[in-house]
Amino acid sequence: MRYFIKSMEHSVCPSSAVHLIPVSTPKNGMSSKSRKRIMPDPVTEPPVTDPVYEALLYCNIPSVAERSMEGHAPHHFKLVSVHVFIRHGDRYPLYVIPKTKRPEIDCTLVANRKPYHPKLEAFISHMSKGSGASFESPLNSLPLYPNHPLCEMGELTQTGVVQHLQNGQLLRDIYLKKHKLLPNDWSADQLYLETTGKSRTLQSGLALLYGFLPDFDWKKIYFRHQPSALFCSGSCYCPVRNQYLEKEQRRQYLLRLKNSQLEKTYGEMAKIVDVPTKQLRAANPIDSMLCHFCHNVSFPCTRNGCVDMEHFKVIKTHQIEDERERREKKLYFGYSLLGAHPILNQTIGRMQRATEGRKEELFALYSAHDVTLSPVLSALGLSEARFPRFAARLIFELWQDREKPSEHSVRILYNGVDVTFHTSFCQDHHKRSPKPMCPLENLVRFVKRDMFVALGGSGTNYYDACHREGF
Questions:
Q1: What residues form the membrane-spanning segments (predicted)?
Q2: pLDDT, average across residues 331-355
């Protein structure tokens, strides 16, 4: 949602005289099944872009447990390792609409309040025992769960905790109960846990982990700190990636200038809150408005009038158009190939060690942001995938063929949907091979070579691609 590069990590919440959509009943005929769709479906979805429908998908309001395709494989395949990338759950806005009252949302956890999860009370109790947990600095200074009666900026909400408790429980049912990925006496070195230094990502990771491994031993849990939202570790310096990003931001700016309805809407909203249009736009009001929308809180009013649903629809529609043009212009794709390479390279390294029979890091969890998942989705060629909703999950599964133990395959799943054969490295596989899964070597070749080929130029490795002259 939001302007792609600024990320939804920078948004706001609206209020209006009318109450918004009740959170208990999905609108637009959205069933729990359609709620999780990641690719547009011409049969079940509105024939024209519906900003309210897209916003509801983005909110990802917890409802009935979703059906998912994780863990599906022919019976002679054995699950070897799982690599999970998540966006943090629902959060309070990062921006305030100038001169308006902040939305009143309670960020304490209350076990019998909606949204409810049967493990919420036990989660709160377990987190309260983790104050001595040993995490990589500066994570050890962060609270382990949200706890403010009025949410602080960017703080995870109860909705966000429940979203990831659900994710964790779903993955537990599939990967532990069904596939026995970890032994009952699992050890600390069989997990790899990494998060950025925001409380919302650490807390989201802990909520998912608690759903996955209830009442885990705190001594076995160690979260590493990742300073970059791209999870690029020691490979973050990449001038060409930054040039792609600057050109992409310029494209966004020019598209906004062409949208007279958007400018008119910002002007109307600026009059309502009595600030210059430029100041209102800089406050990224959609972030706050999405918060109001997802929490069914009225958009703000002043003596000059109310921000309303029509304003919200115009800004949301522009976001959707921006994403469409972004796919066509390919600048973001270039940024994504370089932005996602370090974390994908790290992932295939972990997979290759697992194929050698190593038993460390069988379950990897990266607790991250929309600006982490988006480049990975784009780099993989999943151009039609929806923008990462709150608590989105992207999963890489590694499988071994028991009938041919030297052969390993991968599956890629986004919010429970198998998108393996939508990826650029495996979209033609089923035309050439009867094998039901994508060979691991396809992914390895993609990361080691094809990502650089897709960038053009003569670079055949990350360093050369990042320092290409004359881009």
A1: none
A2: 97
